[in-house]
Specification:
The chain has helices at about 15-30, 50-55, 70, 75-80, 90-100, 130-135, 155-160, 215-234; strands spanning about 115, 120-130, 140-150, 170, 175-180, 180-185, 190-195. Strand 1 and strand 2 (about 120-130) form a beta hairpin. The protein starts with 12 loop residues before the first helix and ends with a helix. It is α+β, with helices and mostly antiparallel strands. The strands form 2 sheets. Strands 1, 2, 3, 6 and 7 form a 5-stranded antiparallel beta sheet that branches. It has a two-stranded antiparallel sheet with strand order 4-5.
Length: about 230
């Protein structure tokens, strides 16, 4: 009986060409992939220490390990681990906030432009409504906005139109500024306030674990059920 010829099967040349092209494309994509862009610091978030302090979860303790703005936005998870940023959920949280900041998604105060010594002043002003809306509310109608401007700075209509309303704050009643981490300035009736950088201002609180959390929930509930059955039989 002749031994069976189980030689290596040759792939069609067209298929080999397709596979080779696919591999080449994947290599090119990997080569082109680069870390996310490094955003510019903002007046409210001028350095690494402030960023880590704002996002909370005790990440400010790692400020000395991540000294530069460039390293803050370029270090990968494994590199952060080697630097001692633990546990893994803390690294994921840092990377999550890093990505949000790249997109311009800030917490309270992140959009403030006039900041001195980590403190920004905000005030209530009245501006005329847009011309397109005046037919509905009247020719002399105004609206109240909260803007970021020093209390001593002069205010005129031209300057007001160039300023953007502060996000996350609102006017309550006649002229009282309300919002998280807002401190009214004495003697202003609440129409002028300050927003100061504080530890954990942007922190996303972790939810309370129920029955040990998602990973252990089934196991914990099963043990509880068995314990209840054992007690019922005794």
């Amino acid at each position: 009986m002749k031994p069976s010829s189980l030689g290596t099967h040759r792939l069609p040349s067209s298929l080999v060409s397709c596979i080779s092209t696919a591999h080449s494309t994947v290599r090119q994509l990997h080569a082109q992939t680069s870390p996310g862009q490094i955003p510019s610091p903002t007046p409210f978030v001028p350095d690494t220490k402030t960023f880590l302090s704002l996002i909370g979860r005790n990440l400010s303790q790692h400020a000395a390990k991540i000294p530069t703005w460039e390293s803050l936005f370029s270090l990968k998870s494994m590199q952060l681990r080697k630097l001692g940023v633990e546990p893994a959920r803390t690294r994921r949280y840092l990377l999550w906030w890093r990505d949000k900041f790249r997109k311009g998604e800030y917490g309270i105060g992140g959009d403030l432009q006039d900041v001195k010594d980590s403190v920004a002043h905000v005030r209530v002003v009245e501006v005329p409504v847009d011309r397109s809306s005046r037919t509905l509310v009247g020719p002399n109608a105004t609206k109240k906005l909260i803007i970021n401007i020093p209390p001593e700075a002069p205010v005129n209509e031209t300057k007001l139109r160039a300023l953007k309303p502060v996000k996350g704050l609102k006017v309550q009643g006649a002229h009282t500024i309300v919002g998280p981490f807002v401190q009214p300035v004495k003697g202003t009736g609440g129409s002028i306030a300050t927003v100061k950088v504080q530890e954990g201002m942007w922190e996303q609180r972790r939810g309370e674990k129920v029955d040990g959390g998602e990973r252990r929930k089934v196991q914990v509930r099963r043990k509880r059920k068995l314990e209840e059955l054992r007690k019922a039989r005794s």
